[in-house]
Each structure stands twice: as structure tokens, then as C-alpha cells.
Amino acid sequence: MSDAVTAAMPELRGWIGRSRVVAEEITLPAVRRIAGMLDLDPDSFGPGSTLPPHWFSLFFADVARQSEIGPDGHPRRGAFLPPIPLPRRMGAGRRTRIHGALQVGDAATKTIEVAAIEPKQARTGQIVVLTMRQTISARGVILAVDEFDAVYREAVPPGAKSASTPPVPAPDGAAWSDAILLDPVLVFRYSAVTWNSHRIHYDADYARDAEGYPATVQNGGLTMHLIVDAALKRAPGPLLGFTARLRRPLFVGQTVTLAGAAPQDGKMAAWAAAPDGTLAAEMELEFGA
Q: According to the lineage, what is the superkingdom (predicted)?
């Protein structure tokens, strides 16, 4: 463990269990913007419409003041997030249970709790995994409980490339697949809808020079959302939950393959493959009867 992380751990452990509540009105204009971004008919939604159950992740943005934004575009640590002393932050995965769905017009809340902070030594160097537990409620009931993992990583030396886990091939024998262009406009609109200002998703010079990526980076939240959308087209029943792991970065402008196995015992494996056939993200979805 690095000296900085070791020194910070007593303070960081004090963050575990801290919580706050973010309120959100699920307004029709916002829903229609999201629908348009996802290539759905905006006018198919009206007052009282029930939203797809996984759309809760498109609301409840942290709205930091401009003076609270750090050099990477994220809110500075210590305002909304624990002050983990590693400069790079990326989504890593999630575990979600679905109990209901938001509706247009809801006065909803998201209760955010720091669930865990775990320092680890990975193949790519020192990391810290931050797990946030998010509980979505509206109309007096809990609609979803979502645990989201973010990985904090060391800085990239000047001129070096960002390290990533060794590639593995995507699974063979998919029962279905969709080719999806990670269009820069789609990624921009997703960032706008979710109020995500992380510079690696829109600033190519920053992504290359500061973080060692070859191009602007696809948003992992959007990757997971697109996989769920594709799987729901083949779903045997209502979505009850899913787990997701982001294995390797995808890049804006690539055409990726979203694919999955046939449902079995109410579960479906699904994944995203990079253009070279390597596995970028994997999910397991659970459906009701």
C-alpha cells in the first residue's frame, strides 16, 4: 500500500456509513430528453408513465458548484466523495436489486451511503475500491437498491499509456447480438443527461495527455445501460436485478458488440465485446416469471 493511502486510511474509514439524501422530481421534460438520447420516441412518455426499471441511474446527479470541480472534471474529493489520495477514478461495476420503477411526476429520493473503502494492490498498481450503496425510493416504497463500485488509481507517468487488465476473449456461442456505435454525440448526450463532467469522456487531449488513453473513453455507466437495454429485448420476464463488471475500457467512436446467452432458470449472461473481440464488460441479469 502506498504511503499516501496508508496515511489516509484512518480518515477514510471514518467515511464508511456516512449517508446523504438527493431529491429528484421525475419531470416529463427530463424523461423525454432521456428517451431521445436512447433513440426512443419522446412523445411515448406522458404524465404518470412508468419508466424502464433501470432508468433510476439516469437521475439524482450530484450538482457541484463550478468552484468544487477538480482537474479531472469530477467534484473535488471531500465534498461529495471521500478524499481518496489517488487521482484517477473509473466505474468498475455494480450489484442492483429492482423492486419497482419510477414514474413521471414522482417526487423521488436517492439515499447514498459509503458502504466500503478497500485498498488493494492490482496488476495495474495501487488501487482503492470505493463502494457506494444507493437506495431509490418514491411513493413511500423502495424501488431499487444499487451498490456501485468505483476504482481510484495512481497517476500515469508523463508519456506513458494507461495500464489495464490482460485481455480475455468474449464468450463464444451468443444467442443474440447487437452492433452498437459508440457515437460521440450519444456519449455527450449521456454525460449531459447524467451531469457527468469527467473529462476523459469528451476531452481527447486530456484523456491522452493526462490519463494515458488513446482516445476519449466510453462512459461505463452507458455501457451497462446499453447492455441492459439489449437484454430486455430478449427478456423472459420483468427485470429483478443484475450484476455488472467493467473489465477493460472502450473508446468513443468504436463499434462494439452487445451479446448474450439464452435465458436459463430466469437468468441471462450478457456482455460487451470490443472491436478486437476482447471482453469489455460482463453482466448477469435476473428476471421474474
A: Bacteria
